[in-house]
Amino acid sequence: MKKNFVLAVLCAVICLTSCKKTTPQAAPGTETKNEAKKWTIGMSQCNLGEPWRVQMNADIKMAADQHPEISVVFKDAQNDTLRQQAQVEEFISAGVDVIIISPKEAAPLTPVVAQAYDKGIPVIVMDRRVLGDKYTCFVGADNKKIGLAAGKWIVQKLGGKGKVVELKGLMTSTPGQDRHNGFMEGIKDSQIEIVFDADMKWLEPNARKEMESALARFPEINLVYAHNDPGAHGAYLAAKAAGREKDILFVGIDGLQQEGQAYVKQGLLSASFEYPTGGKESVEAAMALLSGKTIEKEITLASRVFTKDNIDAGGEWLSE
Ligand code: FRU
Fold first, then answer.
1. Please, how many CA atoms are within 13 Å of residue 243, restricted to the half-sphere of its CB?
2. For residues 165 and 273, what is the distance between their CA atoms, to the nearest angstrom?
3. Residue closest by Cα to atom 6 of ligand 1
4. CA dist 244 to 211, 237, 253, Å?
5. pLDDT digits over 162-180, tens only?
6. Among 199, 274, 275, 277, which residue has the most ligand 1 atoms within 8 Å of its CB, making it the best to mutate?
7. Nearest C-alpha neighbor of 99 from the set 119, 79, 69
8. Which CATH number fits domain 143-276+308-317: 3.60.15.10, 3.20.20.220, 3.40.50.2300, 1.10.3110.10?
9. Which pLDDT tens digit goes with each residue over 93-139?
10. Whole-structure pTM value
């Protein structure tokens, strides 16, 4: 009898404590957290089709999660300039506190960014630039410097001469232009010859197709300089299909751990130049603005080169 009574009391205690866990009070802080979200950041990402952009959004989310007082509304423009213009307009009408944009291309997105800026909404532009100066802050690495470093690295690797294929990023976007101009500067005193070049618009399937044409036309290609790692990988696959991947070196840009760095480790790429996403820095810039601080107009991120020789040591920083 006494045993039964003790058992009943025990059951009641267990039930009460576990019931308590499922009541609304069991998630303390949730409500206070939502109420505390006093600022909204609208983020327009030009596309989420490439791993680098997925990483940028993840970096933004991770940094934003550290600040309970902000919420970030993410929009994916799916590589469509008109859609991206509309997204910024929506953010303006919604009256968000800060806009972060990584624009697909420069000229067509300049007016809408300027419109937000003129209305007093701070705009942080990431990775690809707009034209003029009607934005609050630009966050990104120096693409000209990366192109220059890639050019110099390639000159050294090829001993000053060789036949190169250049697979360019979308040339209406500023990283494509800067990675090309920097590269030309880097190879200017050498006997490197660009035998074939094409705008693969940052996309791996385009790069693969363009490389197929290059391979069909040129029996000798020493190296492919692609403006991003998906482009370099696409070129590698085309060369492999033609049985020529061992005769050609491949160099790319981005250096994501799970992409470019992995390709370097596997020996598919000879080098990958890091292009940091700037996700964390853009959230820091937004937080500074929201708390009334003034920030620099340019936040320039550092970059590293990863090769087989330095990758285990974390790559090598590009010099100033
Ligand atoms: C992703 C991407 C990256 C590249 C960057 C340039 O869309 O193509 O691979 O480094 O954009 O803006």
1. 0
2. 17
3. 175
4. 11, 10, 22
5. 999 999 999 999 999 999 9
6. 275
7. 119
8. 3.40.50.2300
9. 999 999 999 999 999 999 999 999 999 999 999 999 999 999 999 99
10. 0.88
